[in-house]
Structures are given as C-alpha cells and as structure tokens.
Amino acid sequence: MEKVRVGFVGAGGIAANHLKNIQKNDQAEIVAICDINEEVASEKAGVYGGSVYTSFDEMIKKEQLDALFISVPPFAHGEMEEKAAGKGIHLMVEKPLGLNLETTLKKAEIIKQSGIICASGYCLRYLDTVQKAKDYLQGKKIAMIRGHYLTMFVPTPWYREMEKSGGQLVEQSTHIVDLARYLSGEIAQVHANMSLQVHKDIENITIPDVTSVNIVFDTGAVGNIVSSFAQFDHRMGLEIMGEDFRVVLDGVNVSIIEKDHTIDYKSRVDVYKVQDDVFIEAILTGNPDLILSTYEDGLKTLSVTLAANQSNEAGVPVNIPLGGKTK
C-alpha cells in the first residue's frame, strides 16, 4: 500500500492527539471519522479531513480502511474490535480496553486469530527515557517499587461512574500500573484499599477519589501504587529499587541513581507521535514486533486494575488471572 488509510471512532479527548499525528505522517491518510456526536466528528473532519459518520457499522461497511483508532470510553466498545478484525483492519485501541475481563479475553482471541496488528494505548512505553530505564534494569534484581498518579478531578460525566469508567485506577492510573509491569515484571497479586473522601458532593459520583494498591510481583518483589484526583495539579511517577540502585521516573524524565553516581535523562520526544508513527510503520512493514504495547499487554494491565477493584470490594488480596504465581 502507498499510504495507510486510517479511520477513527471516537473523536474527542485523546483522539485529538492521534488525529494530529496521523495527519502529519506522510505514510498515512485520514479517510473517516466517526463519533456519536456528529458536530464533534464534523469539526474534526474540517481540520483533518475524512468522511463523517455517526455509525461505526456504516463506516467500516462503506470505507476501505487499513487501520482504525478506537478512542471511545471503556464502556462503549461493544463489538468494534471483533468487527474490525473480521475485515482485516489493523487496530490501535486506547486504554483501558474494557471493563470486563472475560469479554476482553474473547476479543483478544478473535484479534489473535485474525492476524491483524493490534496495539493498545500505553504510550509511556515509547518514552526515550523509559527505554533508558529498561536497558539499565536488564539483569538487575528489583526488590521494591513505588508508584503514584495524583491529579485533579475529570469533569467528563461518565468518568465519575464506576460502571462506565471502572474508576481512576482502571481509567487513568493504569499507565503507572503498566509501567510497573513493563519495567519490573508481571504482577501476581494485589491488595487494594479505596475510598471516596473529598468529592462526595459531586453529582452521581460512584468512584473512589483515593486509592492505595499493594502489589506482589512474580519475582517476589513488592510494591505500592497510590492514586487520587483530590489534587490541584498533576504528578505521576515510579521508583524502582534494588540493592545499591534506584530508577526514578518523574513525569517523563528518568534518573538512574547509584551510591556515588547519578544520571538524569530528560525526555526529548513527543511520546504520542512516536507511538502512532510506530503503529503505521508496523502496518507498512508487516512487523508486529515494533509494537511495544500490544493488545495482550493492555489486557494484562487491565487484569491487574480490575483485580484491584475486586480486592477493594472483598477486602482481601486477589491473585491476578493473567499474572503469575505468588512467591
């Protein structure tokens, strides 16, 4: 193919980044944009091009798509992945992949059998600084990790409802969970505590605003990830510790610290653009190994966050179905 013909379903939120990046990619072209809000789809098409749709089924029936970006809320996926995969359309599915592990597992099997390239939207893996951290950690014994995702409340109506978003850990802090997996290994068990403390006056809110998750890795390493939207600013990070070293991710920058030596790395990339360009390149070259976060990776991270919700509800530790054995 001369250019990858790209469609979008879901034109708001994070889709704006993907639309901008694909428009700038000389090896791709935007041919269709679908959103249940026709005004939003039309506005984006006026900027980035492409035909406008309000029906996903109509779009994939009428358009000859090579690739599709799915950027809809977690409760709204329906059978989009299965239908697109059935037509051989390569997929970039934004996180989280869904809210039900069994349903998402079935999607994963259909995607696998179709042979398409399918990426998930864990963009932080593509940071140049994260790759520095990953290279440094190769062969090192990790003992403990500490992570945080602290930010302000998101006013989007569906975000505040547990049955639609899955809560902050599933919808936002999932990025830190994914980085913990990517850099420290698979997670075997979680024990979570969550509470609604300072946002009880928000209409229809059913998600916790503070979360703490204790983690056990396959290796026996332990850790903790905290998240909250009770803050006035945005901070995220991850600290990975072993004997005589620690790797600290602060936002998008990384420090590698040893007893008498520290190296600081400042990120120099637009991580969303890198992620999207790699997706297009993987399609053109037929090389799925270029994808750093596959659908399977996204599924494993989802299983951790859903298990944390389960742990909080039950008040007990929960083993991860897609993780491994606790030590």
Automatic annotation (TrEMBL):
Residue ranges of every copy of the Gfo/Idh/MocA-like oxidoreductase N-terminal domain listed in the record: 4-121
Residues in GFO/IDH/MocA-like oxidoreductase domain copies: 141-244
InterPro entries per the UniProt record, alphabetical: Gfo/Idh/MocA-like_OxRdtase_N, Gfo/Idh/MocA_Oxidoreductase, GFO_IDH_MocA-like_dom, NAD(P)-bd_dom_sf
GO molecular function term, any single one: nucleotide binding
Entries under PANTHER family matching the protein: D-GLUCOSIDE 3-DEHYDROGENASE (PTHR43249:SF1), UDP-N-ACETYL-2-AMINO-2-DEOXY-D-GLUCURONATE OXIDASE (PTHR43249)
Protein's name according to its UniProt entry: Dehydrogenase
